[in-house]
Amino acid sequence: MMKKLSETTIRIVTAAVIAPFVILCFVNYFSFIGLVSSVVLFASYEYLKFSLKSTNHDVVRVVISGIIPAIIVVYGILLYRSSFMSFQRPELIFAVGVISLSSIVIMTVSDVKGAKEIIVNSVFSLVYVGFNLAFFYHIYLRFGSSMALLALTSVWLFDTGAYFSGKRFGKIRISPSYSPKKSLEGVIGGYITTILFIIAFIYISGLLGLYNGPELGLFQIAILAMVVSIFGTIGDIVESSFKRYHGVKDSGNLLPGHGGMLDRIDGVLFVTPMFYIFLTLLT
Q: What are the TM regions of this chain, as residue ranges (predicted)?
């Protein structure tokens, strides 16, 4: 009889399979666009699916509403880089998206209460997922692909460090109402892991001739690691509050051992814009 794999083993195997593919997407700008857009699509769909489960809607309407943020991000990126249009106001894309999304819903949904729920939650997903992740390509364009990749992978390492530190030493609970397992010891362990990872990332990628980001001193690295630790934790707790409100354990089951896409990027959603802000301030 085959022994059942532990959740930790499943998490590690999934990460080992997915991580190389994700990292390779940062090599080319257009594969990077495809990655961010795909993540927005899946995460938006998951958020809408569990937040609208009590309304009178079907999966098709959720898919339609979830696709809109992904389309907007794609066009936002393409227009931002486009040479045939001097159009550098991505917020207008989001405004058009809100109008388009609302128009689609009122034309396809006859239930008034259901339509309102779909519009409100879809617009929120547009900001919560699409707008926050849009800062990835601002980091990519202004600070280089290395910094965009670092913004993502530093959250991965923070989560890993926090998970194992919390599991081993966690006693002081920082959010008993929303995320009972999250501990101060875990956050501290994650912070130390993140500092060490950023130093190793810059050093190794520099040796390989792959680093194209700004020079960062130890103080700047410590601040960026703090940004990742604080806002990664807040992002995680915020998503946990949504799931508890709607009575779901995971946002989905797309990633074995990790739950859904939204579960995997909850911290990234808050870290990405703050990473961009602090990079701007520190460099």
A: 12-42, 62-80, 92-112, 118-140, 147-166, 186-211, 218-238, 265-282
Name the DSSP class of 142: H
pTM over 0.85: yes
Of 133, 157, 182, the position where a domain reaches its end is 133
pLDDT in tens, 221-263: 999 999 999 999 999 999 999 999 988 888 878 777 667 899 9
Q: Which domain holds residue 47?
A: 22-133
Long-range contacts: 16-22, Cβ < 8 Å, 24+?
Answer: 18/255, 19/156, 22/152
Which of 104, 133, 162 is the C-terminal boundary of a domain? 133
**55-62 contacts, C-beta under 8 A, 24 or more apart:** 55/111, 55/113, 55/114, 55/117, 55/118, 56/111, 56/113, 56/114, 57/109, 57/111, 57/114, 57/117, 57/118, 61/105, 61/108, 61/109, 61/118, 62/118
